[in-house]
Amino acid sequence: MELIVRAVDVGSGNTKFVTHATPTEIRCASFPSVAYASSGLTPAWEPGERRKTVSIPIGNLFYEVGPDVALAADTFRARQLHDGYTDSPEYMAFYRGALGMMKLSHIDLMVVGLPVSLLASRKASLEKAMAGEHDVGAGRVVTVAKALAVAQPQGALVQFATENQKMATIAKEESLIIDPGARTFDWLVARGTRLVQKQSHSLNRGMSDVLRALALEISRAAGVQFRNYDAIDLALRTGKPLTMFQKPYDLKQHLAIAENVAEQAVVGMLEWIEEPHRLQNIILVGGGAFLFRKAVKAAFPKHRIQEVKEPMFANVRGFQLAGQNYARSVMLAERGLPERS
Questions:
Q1: Domain ranges of the chain
Q2: How far out from the chain centre does Cα 281 lie?
Q3: Which CATH class is domain 5-152+314-334?
Q4: Cα dihedral angle (127, 132, 136, 142), rounded to 10 degrees?
Q5: What backbone torsions phi and psi does residue 34 show, to the nearest 5 degrees?
Q6: According to CATH, what is the number of the domain 155-206+257-309?
Q7: Which pTM value belongs to this model?
Q8: What share of the chain is helix, strand, coil (3-state, %, to 5)?
Q9: pLDDT tens by residue, 4-55
């Protein structure tokens, strides 16, 4: 019997999810963690105007989410940047939007993630909320039999070990996984694949802080209010200038402030790391990895900083791998079925 396992990583910046999984291949997709609320279903669109979004009913509202949500949103759309994020209707809309895009009606095991600092307090409630029947719009319902919540960087550790063929040896190694996300700067110290709780934590010092700081600097320099965070993020990732008033605007003059935010996050993390010389693997993942790389390397000058392919999807790929292992070793045994190789 083959159990259906899937994974979703609902971040404050992007929602990442697995669309296809076999023992040899995992395919992922994502959409911005932005939801446009309305009191009714989105209107029908002409074929040439149709956008890649879905309307998710939650309570008395419909939340439009998906890759093309920028075409639906108004000029102001607040992101959920607080510790109660997992309890918000927007979080559920992102989760159910991802469920709908998986094109499945039943999932045996769903693996989701939490920031390290919230794992102990929110694990049970999130697992309960993620399981059960979910209305994904358009008359479709997806049933999730069981949900498992793990610390987000744990997924990246599993992905790193698998990608580098270290699953057999990493059990004897101590690792630090650093995950700069949109809202939180997460890190996890692990012995093998087990979390060392007293050295693992999160700080609210992620990419959103970098983008806000840069927007403020741009506003001061240009003499206008500038809040196009997505444009700043794209310029940072591509190295191409912003466009303001039909002219290129080079961000290089403000990069020191971005680096300062990254340094603050790394310094905060170092207070928790007791014996850095013991670390055999330092792994940098997450959508903000490119911007935090310099600060991390400065903090660990004697270590090699390792990364994974497609760092934005590292967590969700690891969730999927961990879920597949759990399904084979635990869930099949619970059902009295033989473990699959």
A1: 5-152+314-334, 155-206+257-309, 207-255
A2: 21
A3: alpha beta
A4: 120
A5: -130, 130
A6: 3.30.420.40
A7: 0.86
A8: 40, 25, 35
A9: 999 999 988 899 999 999 888 999 999 999 888 888 765 555 555 567 888 9
